[in-house]
Amino acid sequence: MDDLLQEFIAETRETLEAIAGEIVAWESDPTDRARLDAIFRFVHTVKGSCGFLDLPRLARLSHAAEDVLAAVRDGKRTPDTALVDAVLGIVDRIGEIVEAIDAGATLDDSTEDSLIAALASDAKPKAAVAVVPMGRATSRSVRLNVDLLDRMMSGMSDMVLARNDLARRLRDGDADPQVEAALERLSLTVADMRDTVTRTRMQKVDALFSALPRMVRDTSAELGKSVNLVIDGADVELDREMIELMRDPLLHVIRNAIDHGIETPEARRAAGKPEAGRLIVSARQSGNQILIEISDDGRGIDLARIVAKAAEQKLHSATELAAMSDTAKLDLIFAPGLSSRDVVTATSGRGVGMDVVRANIEQIGGRIVLVNDPGRGLRIIARVPLTLSILTTLIVEVGTQRFALARQSVEEIVLVRGDQVRIETIGDAAAVLVRGRRMPLVALAGLFGLGSEPPPTLVIVSTREGDYALGVDTVIDTEELVVKPASPAIMATGVYAGMTLPDNGLPMLLLDAAGIATVAGLRFAPVVVNDAIEEVAAPGIPALLFDDLDGQRRAIALAVIDRVEPVPVDAIRRTAGAMRLTIGDAIIPVHAVGGFGDRTEIAMLRLTDGESEMAYAIAEAIEIVALPAEMAPARRGGTDAGAPIAGVVLIAGEQVEVVDPHALFAGEPVKIATPPLCLLQVDGSGWMETFLKPALEASGYRCVTALAVGETAAVALAMEDAPVSAAHAPVVTLRRSRVADGDDDPSVYRYDRPALIAAIAARRGL
Description:
alpha+beta
């Protein structure tokens, strides 16, 4: 096929779904000239390309749509529902023809006359035409095969492993300072390349959301409902392969929300709700995960009806259903074959859907959570990893063997000690009691034939069917690893999800939490436990109990802890007046209340408030506890011991200081996870790169002299005597003179640091 025709097909695919959403939005606001112009430009471009590519059918359709849109632009036509439906029909047909051209197939043209006739002002309304899925190409400049990107990612992973191995060998010996300096430059280059290669796989979630306005419009019209769609977070980036895998589950959930959740206009009026339902689809990043949330203001889920359907289909016994909590009853909608519909329709009622949705999301390392509010709506939250290529894992050790476990499936890590965590034998099965919560135990050493001793460490694992404790010897670390499929013989065992290559260069197997439960013969069922310990509700919030470096036992809220990991002491240095930790390519501030002594390794709490992060050095993590409601407040802020203390609580008869995370973050410099981007419009003198960039980056900004593909600057900076190029961002102008040229001069003296920072902050808010 001619290269020019290939380019035309790819670019047309790029914009088709986005244009469909623009047409739906334009229908709700006919006065929006910007959207009308965007739609007009699309059909005009298609018409112009068809002229020299000799595509008469496409030219005829696009020409007819262009004439109608031109009439709307001139005020001669009003964009009513019939006109919008007709334009959507033309856009869909253009997509069908483009796909047929790409496949080299023939396409009947018998319907095209009626599509053009529907554009007439006196045409009768026609039924909506089914939407044809379109192919996608995400870059207008260079289009790369995904296999090539995978090879690039694999190559970069090998480079990182080689770099880490070299760094470890240099640390173990007496390295030449010049060699260390060369390695540092190499490390920076490799880190930058790894970030660049990773970003080539990233795509805005807008590619996933762009088809939703059209789909919601068509589905709600088919069901006789009115639904307002709100999309938030379309700029969040996700691995392009993950976007494709999330597409079908997302569309199914939204169809369910419209069909099952949102009521008819009559029912909503009777319930005192607006006639139009509200459907919100949002995306946001949380650590190394993306949270996609779908919420509606409909009727929610009727748990009694779900339980009745489960009993009718004999999914559980009446005793089991009666013993279930509301959460367990809510999870019944994921049971295969269960549907709340009594009548099968074109949209639902077959009992096939939500079980597949959960299976698809869990297959890519994600989890799905339901939050039900009967009579007011339902929230469905899907947590998926940022990328399939790199997975955050927990490294565990059993005997001399090490294994990786996906961190998304890990709830907590506890040591077997005291009355709060103990191992029990019930019949011939092992179980653990963790703070009054009983669950089955799978000792990894026993399962793999590596020993029979009781495990000293428990990893609480969450699976689709239920939670259990995985017994290991010790937890080594957390690592972001590149996961690849293992050999068929290994995968056939059912306990592995793949293999990976950590920094030490030795291959390591990735455990499958759900597969281990199946192989171990675990059967999860709702039970009613009457243990005296379990009847006591634990007050307060969960917290980590630990021994601090000064020997004092303290606790800190669990919600502020991102992870607990051992780090080498030589990775911690006092620089620029503060202790800082180097982890990979990141520099993180460290808080410590005592010296490290002769330790070569120190346990580190990685703390985060969602935007910033810091580390807190401790002697040993003890266990997770619930803070009592009563706390004696600290005097003078509680900072005498070196740690900001909120107060003292009584845990197991012992006084325990509670660390104040608010004071901790307020009193320490922290690393901003996503610093605002400043575009320096350099003038060739080198002043901005040499003087301005370090000052701004010390104030929490990231500075670049050129934007990468897809980047948007929060603010741009330029000298008063240099031309300001188009930056699509507010501009702060710098002057060389101390005195402004009149009261209306908005420029800032380039060495007035407080005024400069204030001006940048003010421009960011524009």
